[in-house]
Amino acid sequence: MIGNLLYIIFSGVAYGVLLFLMSAGLAVTQGLMRFANLAHAAFAMLGGYVAVTLMNTYSWPFLLTLPAAALATALFAGMLERLLFRRFYNVSQLYQIMLTVGIVSMSVAAVTFIWGSVNQPVRMPPYLSGSIQVGSFDIDVYRLFLILAGGLVVWALIWGIDSTSFGAKVRAAVDNRRVTASCGINVDRLFMLAFFIGSALAGLGGALSVNLVGLSPTFATDFLIYVLIVVTLGGHGSMKGALGAALLLGVVDVAGKYYVPQTGPFIIYALTITVLFWRPHGLFARA
Amino acid sequence: MTAIEIPAPAPVTTSPERAHKVFAFTSRWRWEEIAFWLAAAISIVVFPTHLVLIAQVLITGLFALSFDLLVGYAGIPSLGHAAFFGIGAYTAGLLARAGWTEPITGLVVAAVVAGIAGLILSVVVSRLTGIALIMITLGVAQFFYEAAHSARNITGGDDGLSGINIAPIFGRFAFDFYGQTAVIYTFVVVFLLYLVARRIVNSPFGLELKGIRENVRRVPAIGIPLRNRYMVAFTVAASLAGVAGALLAQITQTVALSSLSFERSAAVLIMVMIGGMGTLIGALVGAAAYMVAQDRLSDLNPVYWNFWVGLLLVLFVLFARGGLIGGVDRLVVWIRAKQKKS
Lengths: 287, 342
What we know:
The complex is a heterodimer of chains A (about 290) and B (about 350).
Chain A: H1 2-33, H2 40-56, H3 62-83, H4 93-115, E1 131-134, E2 137-140, H5 141-163, H6 165-175, H7 177-182, H8 187-213, H9 219-234, H10 239-259, H11 266-278
Antiparallel strand pairs in A: 1-2
Chain B: H1 16-26, H2 31-46, H3 51-73, H4 82-97, H5 103-125, H6 130-150, H7 152-155, H8 180-201, H9 204-214, H10 218-221, H11 226-252, H12 262-275, H13 281-296, H14 302-319, H15 323-341
């Protein structure tokens, strides 16, 4: 009984860390520019494919593919931001949605064209597979790695937002973009940097998630809803809020699949809708 | 936005006569509307082998129309409008399977059920904006998709519902193999609902919706209850989408699980954008263009289809936000200006 509960919390936290990595970028950029980027999950998908290709075709070691995936995703997303997204910051959200839905549609087709619609196989290095025995518990090594490595990134991110000058500027801009700009801070460049970092995190999250949830072209739409739930429940532009929401979502999802597998993802949707009835601005939003 | 309702000069002093004139001008029958409905009627006569496609174009057009009410008028973006289409389709299908085979009451019941679903959801939707709003519409649609997927003994799961028998319309006109009855039935229903939608957008209520779209903050300031208008718009759009789903179920005698899919929600977004948002007729034109292109290019790998459709959406949103209707309008204005010069 207690063992099951520990297993659920352990797996849920690992999953939650992944969800956080995939959503953190959107939480910040959405908070900064109110830009509804529905292609954010597609960025994570791109990171996954880059990692898988480097591993399977060029036999790179897994740990090296992670920064490569993050960088490649960030470069690609940064290019999109400069070429397309920035033209849409001051128009109706309707058009932002149309633009990004178009990009999702194109990216799903492009990925199917290049890699096919089958699930991509991955083989983890031996030191990241299997499980270790602690007392009477089997601890899955990969999930442990996720929690530790992901935890490190999460800590670095929250420290960066809380304690660096860049983070302070981002927080200021989330609160009030115009006043921040009038203080002489280049919000456009700030945003570009935040977008770059956020996309890198999404690419990293995508690369890390392949071993846990698989990778196929439906990734971009399957995870879109999770990413949106995290950002919504977390509240606008709040890192800690998004982290809390991601961990909650991860644990509830794993618990739901464990205890009531026949209900599928219903529990998540039911929980989200209930929370929004009660707190329409998210769980962790400031009043 | 589209430069369509602008030509009426802003009244300096408001008088009832002036208001009448403005309303008469904005609600006039535009030539695009007449052309579309004439073309639809003629194509039924000219292409007797494509009646099923014509009926499906009209049904999809009605679905796109309901989405345009939501997006193009009230300015509420939704990524889950297929939910109501699917609810209508399953309602009509299950009703017929249960023995209630009369088609018109079937449509009414589907409209009511989809409308109630819309009303319930609108309580949440009317409080949200942006990402949260997108998330909830997408989530609810996925919820219904999963529900229909797992409730195999009711909905047939992946296989969908089949073997739906529909009684003759008014007890006289039976549905035939070639789809003649089906296409005329669809044409009449969609046309009547088009008139209803037209009436709605040209009413003071429709004007309030446009106000919400143009400036959300100013609307409550002039005494319009925002949440109420959101809820009404959402409910009406949901129930029209339900009728579209029910029509498809009745004329194809099947309900596919894909009627609830994300692809359908995304497709309707594309159709309305291509046709021209906030014009009603643009939704029908966009749906027709999309469906006919899909039918012509059915040999094409669906992967390529999705790519080009996505690209088209990006290009339209970048360069032609008025869609096809907006483009035609601009062309007409340009030609008239040229004629005046010479």
